[in-house]
Amino acid sequence: MPIILDKVSHVYGEDTAMAVTALKNISLVIPDGQFIGLIGHTGSGKSTLIQHLNGLIKATSGNIYFNGEDIDADDFDKKRLRSKVGLVFQYPEHQLFETDVFSDVCYGPKNLGLTQKEIQLRAYEALKLVGIEDEYFYQSPFDLSGGQKRRVAIAGVLAMKPEVLILDEPTAGLDPEGRDEILDQISKLKKETGITVILVSHSMEDVAKYVDRIIVMNRGSVMFDDEPKEVFRHCEELESVGLAAPQVTYIMKKLRDNGYDVRDDVTTIEEAKTEIIRYFSNLKSAKTRG
Amino acid sequence: MLRDITLGQYYQTDSVIHRLDPRVKLAATIIFIISLFVFNDIAGYIVAALFLAIVIKLSKVPFKFMVKGMKAIVFLLIITVVFNLFLTPGEPVLRIWKLTITKEGIKLAAFLVIRLSFLIIGSSVMTLTTTPNQLTDGMESLMSPLKKLKVPVHEVAMMMSIALRFIPILMEETDKIMKAQMARGADFESGNVIKKAKSLVPLLVPLFISAFRRANDLAMAMEARCYRGGEHRTRMKPLHYVKRDFAAYACVALYLITGAAAGRIAETVCALL
Lengths: 290, 273
Fold this sequence. Notes:
The complex is a heterodimer. By secondary structure, chain A is of the alpha/beta class. Chain A has helices at residues 46-53, 78-84, 101-111, 116-129, 146-158, 176-193, 204-210, 228-233, 235-240, 247-257, 269-289; strands at 3-12, 20-30, 35-40, 61-66, 69-70, 85-88, 164-168, 196-201, 213-218, 221-226. In chain A, 42% of the residues lie in helices and 21% in strands. Chain B is mainly α. In chain B, α2 packs across α7 (132-143). The termini of chain B are far apart. At the A-B interface, α2, β6 and α3 of A face α8 and α10 of B.
């Protein structure tokens, strides 16, 4: 189910003295099955943009098409849209409310009006997907650790079986271990189910490691929209808007500047490792030959 | 939807009214409200209306912001008008079935509408032109004589400013949780009363939890900075009266005298003509 944004703008507090333009003429195509990283400085309009995608905020001007249908049309079923486009907010654990983990995850599918059996099946699957063990199912969600709470909350959205999953800074405030767990699970989920995933983040490392397309937002406009490699080539421009390329990209650039003939469009540690090994083994073989 | 509540919202402009000492504004508002209930003739209300109009004009706040606050009391107004119209004994004017409208009833209803709407607009002017912090500072300073009677003035003022400070935060939080639950298919609008009330559980539970969490964090942060109440605390911005504040007090006094005497002045003018 592709999503198409056509010249979408959004103004907060329109017609008041405090009007703020959050989005300016955004046009994007989000095809099926992509893993997209949405990055931008605080206040660049990321969160506003993603709330448009499932109809929580109405565009001030412009149109959004989900599977070819205009989502602001009067006869468009927003509830159905929200079940297809799952949105996980920042600090999603703050939305937990039920007495036990399992019923909280059931809340979403229950709102879809499914049968009891289907609801429970989906909740079970979703909890398994995020790696929550059976022993936690009937505990209060408030007794879990931060990372577990967050995974339960993500399961609450996954249980709706969305075709597009949007995560707004899913790793904010987690320790490195919790962060890697969540991101690995998301990428596993992406591989297993083939759904579209949009990951909002300002950690370049996180994004570079997983996604196949990066959209950089700056002051309500799209600044870059390309493959990670291509985007991180512009590291000076990224820095000028308060972002940066992954650290490893800088290391490779430095190496290159110091006369080592390595590629500098490397974005993950794995790639860097292979590249450096390649460089030195070439060097070695050149030496033995010479 | 939650942003429609104007009562208690600050509107930033650069005006004389904004720059006045909060104590002046508080005292003037209280005097204005009392005056509304003391005046009991049309002439007095004309003076009050003029006074209010001048203050609004000076404050540079768009009039529609003041009227927004009125929406909240429309229902109350209608009820008081209806009761006063039909239940005031006196000279009958109109008879509908068993209900009679009396001359006194009309007068009373009209006065009540004027009083209540002026009261709301008058206090809106104050809250729109004074930041919550200034307001509580002013209150603390005005009430400080009560300290002698062992009233915990500083603590009360602190609680008020914290409460006021938390309103926008909690409103934002409500908005966020509502959206998060809507993303999970929640529906807060349709259904009957019971269904609607039930649908609020996923909103209220997280909201309460977050309110407690925030309160806890704040208490912790205050304690970490050794906060221990009002004794010996100094201020970064102590309140000082300047010339314009005394001028404002004079204006309020002038208003009060003209308003109280307006009826008699009008009578003499009429008699002379």
